[in-house]
Amino acid sequence: MSDPAPPIDPLEPARHTAASAPAPRVVVKPRRLAGDRGPAPLAALAWSSFFGAGYFPLAPGTAGTVAAIPLWWLLRQDAVPLWAYFAATAAITLTGIAAADRAGKYYGVADSGHIVIDEVAGYLVTMAFLPRSLFAALVGFVFFRICDVLKPWPAYVFDRDPRWKNGKGVVLDDVFAGVWACALTWGALWARQRFFPGT
Predict the structure, then answer these.
(1) Distance of alpha carbon 119 from the chain centroid
(2) Which domain holds residue 163?
(3) Does the structure show a pLDDT above 80 at 1?
(4) Is residue 5 domain-resident?
């Protein structure tokens, strides 16, 4: 007489599936890939990281945006005409594209976390036309960081399309995020003046 079959555990298939399922993989954007890409282009690395802000160990993009606030504050003084502000923003954007492209090739990652000159250009776009005040600086900072993460159209095109995985795409996605953040910041300033006048 054969031994009776062992009882069937109804939870066994679920346990087997859970045990065999691979653990979720956390994807972290690398800041630099291994490989010999020649001598470091010091000027491009310095400018693309905005003089080292991009090497901040935590949230380098946020650090780059914070580093841009004093620059905006200086450029928005009453003694500086608006055309000079836009000329400086355009110069930072264009030289930032070139530096980001060169630095990305050196790092082996087009949008390396060390590259934050795009945040500088995007924040200056955000703060165009805005009054020189602490409230505007902080609200613009918050909205720019939100738009930089969410990438509203057309920013996401430059961020995701493989054809833009270069210096132009790196900087232009933040520039267009800055356009959205500028509109949102103006809305916040209007709401403050409308509902909380005198504050």
Answers:
(1) 6
(2) 45-195
(3) no
(4) no
